Amino acid sequence: MDNNPGTSKSPPIKKKRLTDQEIFNLIENPLSSDEDFDLSSDTDLGEGDSADDDVDFEEPADNAVGEMIFGEIDDNNVTDTDDPIIDEVSPLRLDEENSETGTLSPPLISPPTTRHRIIKQPTTRVSAPNYNWLDHSPNLDTIDFHENVGLKIRPDGDQPIDFFNLLLTNDFFEFVVRETNNYATDLYMNRSSDKSRITKWVDTNVNELKVFFGLLLHTGTIKLPKMSDYWKTDELFNLNCFREKMSRNRYMLIMRALHFCKNPETDEEVPSRIYKVEKVLDFFNKRMQEIYHPSENLSLDESMVLWRGRLVFRQYIKNKRHKYGVKLYMLTEHQGLVQQIMIYSGQGTGVLPGVSHTE
Questions:
Q1: Whether pTM exceeds 0.90
Q2: What is the C-alpha to C-alpha distance for residues 286 and 167, in angstroms, rounded to an integer?
């Protein structure tokens, strides 16, 4: 049932199937009207009520049967195409000559088309160029290396602390002491409560700062879950060296105030993303040039320092052991001794205009 009342239902289409004898008679004696074909006025031919509808028909070919063309075929170099051999049988067409009388022409059978075969031409192979191999090595300009590899300045002794003092001089510690005391003063002036730990601050000095760095490095060799565990008196955590050298509150207070630069004022522009450690990097790179001469073979590669905290230039490299962290570009010797360090702080930062970090 049609749900749309505005639409009219078309009458059913009447179809008539012709027998073989009727088709043969139709070919022998073309019909001149619908009555001879036994078609009533309500018979549908698909496009109208009669065979006189305006339909565009192609002009039949002059020859009823096309000529088959057979060529010499090389079975080794042939490729069949997908062209059909015989076209579909054309419907009843309106003969152009009898268009005025409306005479229907018998259906025309399209001539069989030729199966196209493509003969592949033999390809010509390009011969490989003839190289003239030399029996001897070519003459290349060699760069002679005559530098003395090793330390330029000898340490005061042969103990590990002597090499440590050779790299980190008293000038470096005095610089850190000055910046740490200044930052501790800023924390004291901007404290939120009089009960804060910063109210017990006393200016540090070079000797105390060296002890602090010694304990800090020692926490890397003895790893405990919390920083306060190093000062526990329990027999499972009894480390006398930490309690004897520095109290826990003093250690945590220096850690809170440790600083390597002066913070910019409110109306001042931040120099760079790594300005808080930039002076330390500059000191290290300059000091390595002063005390050590590298060998002939150097390596420039990137490295990762583990860091999972909040940082705008934190990197993720899945192929590294530490996937999250700060990426460094380091110039090292083949044994692994670091000569220069540069921190990657983001694209377009920390380099000259138009020059990338790798350049």
A1: no
A2: 10
The CA–CA distances, whole Å, from 317 to 278, 299, 303, 311, 312 equal 24, 20, 10, 15, 15
DSSP 230: G
Residue type, 33: S
Q: How far is the C-alpha of 33 from the C-alpha of 21, rounded, in Å?
A: 19
Query: How far apart (Å, rounded) are the C-alpha atoms in residues 33 and 39?
Result: 9
**pLDDT of residue 209 exceeding 60:** yes
Q: Which residue type, as a one-letter code, is found at position 9?
A: K
Rounded distance between C-alpha atoms, residue 77 and residue 177, angstroms: 88
CA distance 303 to 317: 10
Q: What is the pLDDT of residues 5-20, one digit of tens each?
A: 555 555 666 666 778 7
Measured between alpha carbons, how far is residue 280 from residues 178, 213, 218, 342 in Å? 14, 15, 21, 11
Query: Residue 342 phi/psi, 5° resolution?
Result: -135, 130
Helix 170-189 to helix 206-221 angle (10° resolution) is 90
DSSP string, 231-282: G--STTS--HHHHHH--HHHHHHHHHH--SSPPPPTTSPP--TTHHHHHHHH
Strand pairing report for 315-316 and 150-151: unpaired
Instruction: Tokens for 127, please give them.
Output: 């011969």
350 — alpha (psi -120 to 50), left (phi > 0) or beta? Answer: left
Distance CA 77, CA 118 (A): 8
**CA–CA separation, 301 and 327 (whole Å):** 10
- The Cα 278–Cα 231 span in angstroms is 33
* DSSP structure class, residue 117: B
As given in the structure block, the two tokens for residue 83 are 């062209």
pLDDT at 44 over 50: no
C-alpha Rg value of the chain to the nearest Å: 48
Given the structure tokens 């850190």, which residue do they identify?
A: 176
Closest CA to 255 of 204, 326, 310: 204
Interatomic CA distance for residues 302 and 326, integer angstroms: 10
Residue found under tokens 């001879």: 36
Angle between helices 206-221 and 248-257 (to 10 degrees): 100
